[in-house]
Design brief:
The structure is a homodimer. The first copy, chain A, is mainly alpha-helical. The first copy, chain A, has helices at residues 16-37, 44-51, 55-61, 65-90, 94-107, 112-120, 126-152, 161-171, 180-183, 187-200. Chains A, B: One of its GO terms (molecular function) is transcription cis-regulatory region binding.
């Protein structure tokens, strides 16, 4: 029996260029919705509705909801990595770079990753979990590289650079705490306080 | 019509003493289950089954699931506060107290509070949310008091003690990070590294 021609999916876009932009729109919409409501509460239908595409269009681009979640998370984390790289390479002074990085991350904490992962993990396969964790790990490695360099230049004291990177990332969770926007005048003000504590410590000199 | 005698609830305990211990058991079981599976995934039936009491017995002690959640959370946070107070009062040296406190908190991060709250918040009323937040706030205030004292003694540099308390609590989230038990030999080893960074900072001297 000759194979029937594949039925064109409703809403399937015609051009490759268009494909990319629709794909991007779906990813960004999904990221925002997952971040706001968590994994389970968000349906593909809702994501489609929000960005004006049909559910079959989403399935044309992404095999499943867990797959879309994985792509949304890794895209978000890769963006954090790019911003981190840009900010730390741009400035001569480590402290300035860290303040700018902290300002960006406190304003938009990727912290919620842990919360989302906890909820989503049982729906994801091993490979999807690993890919998200690797994207997160790459941010730590990039930070650790800069810390390693600063140790070689005797700007930082000798310490496990990965430990410093993870500590720094953990401190960015200050951006998640309730009421913080009220208590600190701005993300910049909080960033300066956090970086200063990270570098100088709380001890009297 | 004469009022019918109230039907005794199945499993309702007979003695006041017993009431207290059953109540405690329900609270601790609920805390453990909520912490493990989150708010929604845990049913009162499941809590009852785990501690060998009927659902009506739970309802005899707690008006509702949100109410039980609130009591479980505030009990847990009050315990963290008591342990904090005990550890910081027991030692002469701030650093030793902080290391012991960090060791205890890294081993049993109350961090997951934020995750649980995020999930549970839509089911709680304003008063319940406020009571949980206040119990958390009291831990910060206690820590801030000790930091204030250490500033007066010129052990710590002048800084907003509440900011230091919140930073210290945020650092305890290092206990939540994936793989940490593998990467650091023990909670004590991680506690020492974190407290040392908190006090001395990462900068070369």
């Amino acid at each position: 029996m000759p194979e029937k021609p594949a039925k064109r999916l409703r809403g399937r876009p015609k051009q490759a260029d268009n494909d990319i932009s629709i794909q991007q729109t779906i990813i960004y919409t999904a990221s925002a919705l997952f971040k706001e409501y968590g994994y389970e509460a968000v349906s593909l239908q809702q994501i489609g509705k929000q960005c004006g595409v049909s559910k079959p269009t989403i399935y044309y681009h992404f095999a499943s909801k867990p797959e879309l979640f994985k792509v949304a998370m890794t895209t978000m984390l890769n963006n954090v990595r790019k911003v981190t790289s840009h900010l730390l390479n741009e400035v001569d002074h480590l402290e300035h770079g860290l303040v700018r990085l902290a300002e960006a991350r406190l304003a938009n904490p990727h912290a919620e990753i842990e919360t989302m992962m906890r909820e989503a993990e049982s729906f994801l396969d091993e490979k999807q979990v690993r890919e998200i964790r690797e994207a997160e790990q790459q941010i730590h490695e990039l930070l650790a590289e800069h810390f390693r360099l600063a140790m070689d230049q005797q700007i930082l004291r000798e310490e496990d650079p990965m430990f410093l990177a993870e500590t720094f990332s953990t401190l960015m969770l200050m951006g998640n705490r309730e009421n913080n926007p009220q208590k600190y005048e701005s993300h910049l003000a909080l960033a300066q306080k956090v970086v200063s504590l990270f570098l100088q410590g709380a001890k009297a000199t």
